[in-house]
## 1
Amino acid sequence: MRKLFVLLFFVSILNGYAQRSKNIFSKDPIINLENFQKSRIYYGFYLGFNSYDFKIDYKEVTPDILVKKTTGFNVGIVADLKLHEYVNLRFEPGLYYTKRDLNYPNNPNFTKSSDALREVNSTYIHFPLILKFSSLRTGNIRPYALGGLSATLNLSSNSKSLEDNVDGRFRVKAWTPNYELGLGIDLFSEYFIFSPSIRGVFGINDELIRDKNTSSPWTGNIESMKTRAIFINFTFH
């Protein structure tokens, strides 16, 4: 029901936007918000979806841990500082919800089927500092590329827990650094700018906290575990 509500919400926004912005893609559009991009600082907000994964490297060759991804939800704000006519510095803090299931196939150490499954529920506070490189505006359309660094605080990391996988507790580090790359497009309507974008997020450091037992069937063979994610955001200025 929550996913259906979010989908209907976006459909209603896009439908209203389309009704107000028929001239964006016309042959000779009326130029909307012509002086908006001349502002030194401006603000906005975004809503969107995410798909988180793990990139796992192993010490020895064994059956891969299977990561089942789900679609999560993003919400945040945007502060944009104009550095150059085509370059902006953006700070985009946001709250991200996601869930991943880790399945350990064909492991003889597990006596119960529940041992082969670990649910990784995550609530992230995401702090990206991004450079936005815009192309020349054509009518009411302006494509752009994004790149930058971010830090993520995982409120559900269990990093301070003394329990580990023996007790059913999967642990990761609270803070992780990332780099981000993406593409988007600014669509100028009469009253606001609508900017859909897609972005890849790549964790830099290993974020797994190992179990106390160095031969743990859950963490013992993992060399590193790093976040990989795709964000689809809809930004409004």
Note: The chain has a mean pLDDT of 86.
## 2
Amino acid sequence: MEQFISSFLFSLNVTLPIILLLLLGMWLRRSQVIDERFCDQATKVIFNITLPLMLFFSVYGKEIDYFSQIKLLLVGIGGTVLLFLIGECLASRFVAEKRERSNLVQSFYRGNNGILGLAFCVNAYGQQALTPASIYSAALIFVYNILAVITLTRALSNEKITIWQMIKQVAKNPLIIAIVLGFLANVIHFQLPKPFATTGHYLADITLPFALICAGASINLRSLMNTSKVATWGSLGRLLVSPLLMLFLAQLVGLSGINMGIVLLMAITPLASAAYTMTKAMGGNGTTVANIIGITTVGSLLVSSLILMWLKHGGFI
């Protein structure tokens, strides 16, 4: 019982700030301090400026040996693509409203790796987890955004989309451009002038609170209490299907110790707040995404505690 309480308190310390920011957004909207127009404008700023900068600085200036983590990356990327395909199959078959399909798909594969995932790993394993977890997170964020452009384009376009059109959508996505530029800057050892780097970090640092406040402002409590089928199945996919599938793949390739922990701790994270920003920016239903973020953020408290207990009991921590 003491171990469960300790794990639960650890999870609470990590996720409670996210919950509080969502609640702040809900309160600000209810108090009419902010409105839908503000959220729409803020979303454009986040999607085009602050979030790309956050992703750029997540890889810029870091000495990372990607080749030493091949097996870990294969599990992460392979599992992500498989979850994406499962989500697409289920959405096309069971979700009648086309524009809601991408919400279900993103829920299955897209976790909050860059923030909560790294926090989980470092708190569980210490600084030794930072490098492999950063490699894993950066690679998956890149894949997440490519798959997000594909599923959002398919769901929100009224015309038949060709592969070439999807490639163009991916190529001009500011999130993907930012990650590629971060990698290129590392390769050529480019150094940003200090004033530009400092300004970039200032803007990057406001991304999470800004995005979560807007997501909270878009949460519809009535629909959250009477959750739609898309939100329900999306939340189950995020909290149950994702960690179970990733556990199976990790065991299949023989991952153990810290690498096993990284895979599972990343898999139990809530739906990424970037999913809300990207969905709103591309004209999708942000309310459903915001509701899934709220449900999975709360639900991840229990799931993360159970996973941490299992990792501790199995000798992975």
Note: The mean pLDDT is 83.
## 3
Amino acid sequence: MSYTPPAMPVAPPPPPGGPARPGAWLKSPVGLARATMVLLGVGMAVDVFSLWAGVGVLDVVSDLIDHGWSADAEDRADRADTLYGTSGVLQALVLLVTATVFICWFHRVRVNAEVFAPDAHTKGRGWAVGGWFVPVVNLWFPRRIAVDTWNASSPGFFVSPPGDFAPEQPRRTLLNAWWTLWLCTGILGQIASRQYANAEEPEAIERAVVSLLASDVLNIAAAVVAILFVRRLTAMQDAKARYGPGGVPA
């Protein structure tokens, strides 16, 4: 799927309304996409480790609820808590690195999409980065940018001249699934983390860990869909850059 970008952008003719804005040029997103997918895979592995560590905490807490405190149970609880804490640190580190690389890829494909269809974007390219960090705005700006980028990168997409019927929009099932899972993981993760931080009694800890385990499972599902999303959007841009609007060899 990788390609060597040509000296001049290979892209469909600009739609009515003018060429791409200054600074927009095609640059291969393949390398960043591969790095993003690898890091998402690493994140899934860390989530599996967190699930294993969380089950260990549940086992200890269950014993405490059934048999009460003892010196042996306290030692096991300390070891389980340390292991679970380590998994949480690893998750945070992998998330930070993955998010950084993903946002770089996201900005790259947004700029490419501006070459494909300069007038198909409702948000400036700077929001492809800033939109993730501004509170409230980050609940919908990244998806809007992703939709515009997906549309512009789809085979045969064009912007209709004023007065014409709008073109048929490409299917966005994968994009919508990615964004929905991303929002759900963020919400559930915040709730579960606060629940665990405030838990003191064994019963409360048990409930909090169950919530965290559910969050880890959702994280894994979200990572799988994110990999598919990154792979698909990168492939569409690669095909369009190679072969033009049709996305297939001539």
Note: Residues 121 and 247 are 20 Å apart (CA to CA).
